[in-house]
């Protein structure tokens, strides 16, 4: 369904964008690939040609800059003469507690790429997409509805993308199709290293980039309005709609109880100690859901000798003190 069509992909040098290029190439699409790293883009372009794309061009671009975005669209259309799919995939991530951020303006880089970059390219692509009755594929994230601690601006930028494209869909009607994609955690440069531990998401399943890219292209070809990928991520959306307070509680528990949850994920039995009994009950229940065979809670104050003696008598297994992570010094 996309053989011979012209597809523009931002953020194509790695991650989902790279594998979207390969998936479109397998189906015979012509490609215009954009990212900041020219050498990496050329390597992706070479592989895309080998996979079956009849024509691939590389356009080094920083989509956070309006003039770069305009140049990217113009060069692609001048080369191919048309535009059928615009895939806005480029994105960056920053992990930090909001209150610990020293320079709030630092987050502008994130929003300029994740949100404004998509706005810019979409604006310049609209006339060409109207002519071809084309489609926009906007890569958002489940972070757009999941309130993930330490990722406040990333979540906000993805929520903005979803709302932006939903509004455009109402404006365009059937003139331009829009597929809004909300992936979960996917293999990429962003999810490598200590990302998952920093974001307290170690227990979240990570989907392969190739599988995610195939699902996205399939969805775009079907003309879907939305794609939540992988399927487990749909549960988070249902929780957001039906029980938003439950979803917020889950992520709050992940933040304040990450050590206990890491032991639980590895199958340890737990004895959880803190002064607030209600919170302990919640953490123990979540730990057992994650994988702990047994999690008991023992209300107590470890600063008091009599409480410590009582705790030692009750202890059955690994002792984990649950408290809010301290602020950075």
UniProtKB/TrEMBL annotation:
It is a single-pass type II membrane protein. Belongs to the short-chain dehydrogenases/reductases (SDR) family. Gene3D superfamilies: NAD(P)-binding Rossmann-like Domain. It is found in: Membrane. Signal peptide: none annotated. One of its GO terms (cellular component) is cytosol. One of its GO terms (molecular function) is oxidoreductase activity. Residues 5-189 form the Ketoreductase domain. Pfam families: adh_short. InterPro entries: KR_dom, NAD(P)-bd_dom_sf, Sc_DH/Rdtase_CS, SDR_fam. This is Ketoreductase domain-containing protein. PANTHER family: 11-BETA-HYDROXYSTEROID DEHYDROGENASE-LIKE 4A-RELATED, RETINOL DEHYDROGENASE-RELATED. Keywords: NADP, Oxidoreductase, Signal-anchor, Transmembrane. SUPFAM superfamilies: NAD(P)-binding Rossmann-fold domains.
